[in-house]
Amino acid sequence: MNPDFDAIKKTTDLVRVVGSYGIELKKTGKDHLGKCPFHEDSKASLSVNAEVFHCFGCGAKGNVIQFVARKENLTDKEAAHKLLGSIPGVCRGSDMAAEKPAVPVPEASLFSAVIDHYHETLLGRDRRGLDYLKKRGLGEVEMVKAFQIGFANGTLPKKLSPAQRKALQACGLFNEAGNEKYYLRVVVPIFDEAGKPVGLYGRRIADQDTGNHLYLEGGHRAVWHAQAAQVYPDELIVTESIFDALSIYASGKKNVLAAYGTQGWTPHHAALIEKHRVKKIVLALDNDKAGDEAVATLAPALDAQGVRVHRLHWPEGVKDANAYFNYTKALDFKGTPGGIATLLAAAPRIGFTRPPCTKLAVTERTDEAVTIQNGNVTYRVKGLTNTGALRVVLAAKSDSAQHIDTLDLYGARSRKGFALACAERLEIDAPKIEEDLLGLLDLLENLRAESAAPATVAAPVMTEGEQAEALKLLQSPKLLDRIADDLETAGYVGEPRNKKLAYLIGTSRRLPKPLSGIFRAQSGSGKSYLMECVAEMMPPEDVHYFSRLTPQALYYLEPDALTHKLLIVDERDGSEESEYPIRTLQTRKVLKLAVPIKDPNSGKIKTTVLEIHGPIAYMESTTDQRINPENANRCFELYLDESEKQTRAIFAAQRRARTLDGWKTERLKEKVLRIHHNAQRLLRPLKVIIPFVDLIEFPPSWLRGRRDHDRFLSLIEGIAFLHQHQREIGSDNGADYLIASLEDYAIAHDLAHLVFAHSVTDLTKPIAEFLEAVRGIVATEAQKQKARVDELWFHRRMIREATKLPDHIVKRSMRQLEELEYVHVQKAPNGSSYRYRLLAVDATPAILDGLTTPDMLEIAWKKRDNRNKPGQARLSR
To answer: Structure pTM?
Structure first.
């Protein structure tokens, strides 16, 4: 007998149930408010009444059964059973038909012995199991040993006593006839987080129509490779099967978990994600209808847990991870580790809570009203203004009824009152209407932002004195050094190279091919502040600084609103949804969008093409260690100084700001900014010619070399452009052009150490610095023990104590060094401890090996017979 779900919901007081979990609720009107238990809630975001709960912070919502299920990681049926005993008038657990007794897990030592036997069999004389794995691309012995993969060839019964055989039969390893259920299967054991074996997956080596996959009876008791969630909480990859997960693991991506089929996301998975606070999951499920349906179900559930969910899309014709890494004759294709890394980086985010662009859809927009559709309910909004409160006239209409009222969408009481009255009139659940109102709030805010183009700031007219000040700045002998000093006056301490390059990026907005930059560092390191300081140095009319961009926001600007402007997005998370239009502006310099709009005169729908012109200079910041390669190879990646020395310099500046000298500097800042604004306005939009460009040799082996080479030349142009009042001006048929000098190349070459340092290596700057620190620590310890560096085994604790870094940073950094094969790691059988050994690595070439040096360029330039022509000034010393 199944429990009566409706009776349970009707006869259970949800407020009492929520309170029983120790959640303090305070009555507010008809509802109760408290802190949500499903996310870190600093304020009372959870609204509860007798029937439903709804968190306005994380989006969790549902009835009493769903609350208990979510709180205790149970299925709805299990939660209903739990509630039955305390609810009068419905079927109790004691009245229901007895369920089949649970199948026990084999005793740990016996089960371990079975797993060991299967593992030894796989690596023994019988090659059938190992040959099958090799055929599937999974025959790497180290991986086979790491996961204790085995093969059942029928030799196990001979090793067992009658009592052991009977015990294993009770646990489901043998059938009623006494035969091995896993006969002729490759087997993969499943351990719980304590390292105890609790499950077994078997894959038949001879494919049949049915029965290829087999799990131990009694249900899933743990997650395969659960320790990945502990070690890789920043990002996990989830596949549909264990073999798919093994394929990804074999490619070098160790941060992988497996579901047990499309319906195999268990409460154990959910609890594991919650326990280790996993931030991001990439779903690498099969490329078929079942995989799509599983993604559609799983993504919202994970999003409700606070996880950012992305979907990996396999190439056309490739079904899953295992197929990706094995040669497909029909496609003449075989995937590579580099290819899977690109697919992972490009995986789009999915499963947002209340996604306005998919649930609430704008169907009509005029100057008077916006019409929005959600299923069979249509909302018509009037009175939307560009600023201020969202107080609107809202009409909600279904097939049979309509409700109209004025409400303030920012007011919780106003939304609640509208939802209750509208629900009664339209015969729809009030929580559903209230959820739509929250979605409308987000959507209308976005529409208002999109329709309000940035205000055009008129450039002020300069006085003769201001023009002289600006020209003096542009003619400074060490202009970039002066700029770095002025940025310090503006408030940013240290990091002269980063400041110079950031200023050049801002200045390059006036060029045909502007520069772009991504500032990478930990939270609180000053990324946003550096961009703010540079933005302040640029003329206000040429800067657009956004905290967040919605996917369509840029399309609704005025056509020339971004032309030769500096666009800054505070954090990459804020621009993640608008990556494509930003990349398009960077590359193609124009955006086009066709949209249907209702003609207010004729009432007919017509298609209008919105066109936004570039080019743009672009800057953003991020704490993310993984950046989409499509974004990274269009930008200079700049790493901020996170050293203790820089921190002390910041402390000193913060103290100085409280002194009289600091106050004087603060008052000087306004003058400095005014001079830079005017200096930027004095720069003429001249074409830059590099007369020595054919003498520059650029390393062709660099990663992303084709785009890096073009950006390097653009950097030379940007430097020459900034120095135009110190450079030779040429003329061609009456059109002036600017001639780059050898000094411009010398500056670009110097900055190239910064901008290309980590484009040519797999090691990011923080990881490279961490590796150097580890090498120094290990070398010191090896000297003490009189051992070779590459022979010394060490633990994370030694590194943590020497570097004073938090454990999660050390753990994450060692994981990356392991993946890139700079260290070898040995794990205890239960995965609870690790020890490391540095691997010998060939010396890497210097970062700029192959790039023409300034001295080499000057020598080559002198050999030409045209040294005395304009623009061929000798390199300054």
So the answer is: 0.54
